[in-house]
Design brief:
It is built from no helices and ten strands. It is mainly β. A four-stranded antiparallel beta sheet has the order 4-3-6-7, with no helix packed on it. Strand 9 and strand 10 form a beta hairpin. This is Arrestin-like N-terminal domain-containing protein.
Length: about 210
């Protein structure tokens, strides 16, 4: 997938969203490639996500699983030609799904609902450009806007950087042998926070790297 940088703005951000509520705003997408690119479709998607524990007969123990259900999709635009350095703006006004239910079981963690914006350039070329955690009742993750606001996706490009963090381990922790463990990290291409170099998904915003 070609290099795109995306940002968003929510109009009149609500402090809480309920089923059938309306939400409006704009999505900004800038193309950082060197040649013009045709985007077949730009979508906004609503997801329900959480982690849960499930018994594995093969491992004879519980293992962590991820749940990701798409509750709704909205097509913002089709068949777009975008030039290098050009930014396209896509206004939206959507109606939240009519029903959802927070997961409050002890075996469930990180239940939240999110909007993602996706650009599709072909059958095998698509990418998630942004991840917005919604302020819904029962959410186990702070929202991207509202009273518990956390840093949102910036419109400026984030350069991928790799750092080496040196962690000193005491003799007690290393069973009497002084040791130094090197952990390589990088910055999330969506929210800019530090994550492990080998991470496929950001542990902070959930965005795919």
């Amino acid at each position: 997938m070609a290099k795109f940088v995306a940002g968003y703005e929510i109009q009149n951000p609500p402090s809480m969203l309920y089923p059938n509520d309306e939400l409006s705003g704009v999505i900004n997408i800038r193309y950082e490639g060197k040649k013009e690119k045709r985007i077949k479709r730009v979508e906004l998607q609503c997801h329900e996500k959480y982690e849960y524990m499930k018994w594995s007969k093969l491992l004879d123990e519980y293992e962590q699983k991820s749940h990701d259900k798409t509750l709704a999709k909205w097509v913002l635009s089709k068949d777009i030609l975008i030039q290098p350095g050009e930014m396209k703006t896509f206004p939206f006004k959507i109606k939240m799904p009519s029903m959802w239910k927070p997961k409050a079981k002890s075996s469930t963690s990180d239940w939240h609902m999110a909007l993602t914006f996706v650009a599709k350039a072909g059958a095998l070329q698509s990418g998630t450009l942004g991840y917005i955690v919604l302020p819904v009742y029962g959410s186990m993750r702070p929202p991207s806007f509202g009273p518990q606001e956390v840093p949102q996706i910036k419109a400026e490009p984030i350069q991928q950087q790799t750092q080496t963090v040196v962690v000193n381990i005491s003799k007690d922790e290393s069973q009497g042998n002084g040791a130094t463990e090197k952990i390589e990290t990088k910055f999330c291409s969506l929210c800019g926070k530090k994550i492990k170099k080998e991470a496929v998904y950001c542990e902070h915003c959930g965005g795919k790297q």
